[in-house]
Design a protein that fits this description.
The structure is a homodimer. With about 170 residues, chain A is mainly α. Helix content of chain A is about 80%, strand content about 0%.
């Protein structure tokens, strides 16, 4: 929490602050995705969560690359938004109930996490453009595309699971 | 937190749980939006935050209408996701720095809140369809459209503010 009160004098300060927020968010997800995977039952959902863990590692490396280029530390901020979303996800995943309904609840929690990241990466991608850091913008756009794709995949799986949950 | 461990036996249970999550999220926003508005400087942003407060009141009424029809209480769940997002927003809004950069930070926080709601309302709208509750689905779609519109409005304002923040 060392940088909680970092002053925001320029768009570059805000860019760094937001990147640190996303770096912490991704690292929280690396811990949370295996827990959600363990609670999930549907094979498609389990595969999607496992695959998204691999993608998350790549996204973390991209952020580390940007921080290295900027000669800044990637740590220093706790992502409170992702912390709350994961807390909700863990709560849903640990409930008693019908397995297909729990799967639907896990998807709903995972989509909240994806949307948090879509908002976050959408913002830093625009900042990178404005700061004329074309290389960073391209890397951040790549992650943004992956987050949107993950949200779409979860939607597709949800359609199957929700139909089965309706019958529960 | 009375229903934190409510069992999820059917899609209807999950529907109610998710609606309660959104009800708490909207009520948290009613408290938070005036604080963000007070910290904002840009007149367009201040207007957008004020207008979204009015919209939020209407969205709360819609949820109350659905709960009333279902003969269920709207309360009983703390929305941890929105709590974390608002905590971040309050932190950003209270920083020292250039006013246009603070405005950009407030927009970024508000867009995270919008995206949380886009994910949440998108989910319950689909559940309402699956549960063949056409009337609820229409109300939830209305709110979903408003959240998407609010996100778009914030994007438009961000374009002006970020250009000014770049010069800071």
């Amino acid at each position: 929490m060392a940088l909680l009160s970092m002053s925001l004098e320029s768009l570059n300060d805000l860019f760094i602050d937001e990147l640190r927020d996303l770096y912490d968010a991704e690292n929280q997800l690396v811990d949370a995705l295996p827990r959600l995977n363990e609670s999930a039952t549907n094979p498609l959902l389990k595969t999607a969560l496992r695959e998204h863990l691999d993608v998350t590692y790549k996204q973390i490396l991209r952020l580390e690359h940007i921080f290295q280029k900027m000669d800044k530390s990637p740590t220093g901020k706790d992502c409170e938004g992702m912390k709350g979303i994961i807390k909700e996800g863990d709560d849903m995943a640990s409930r008693d109930g019908d397995p297909s309904v729990i799967d639907a609840a896990i998807i709903s929690a995972a989509q909240r996490a994806e949307h948090y990241e879509i908002a976050g990466y959408g913002t830093v991608r625009v900042y990178a453009d404005l700061l004329e850091c074309k290389g960073y913008a391209e890397l951040l756009q790549k992650t943004l595309d992956e987050e949107k794709e993950a949200d779409k995949t979860l939607n597709d799986i949800a359609n199957t699971i929700q139909i089965s949950a309706r019958a529960a």
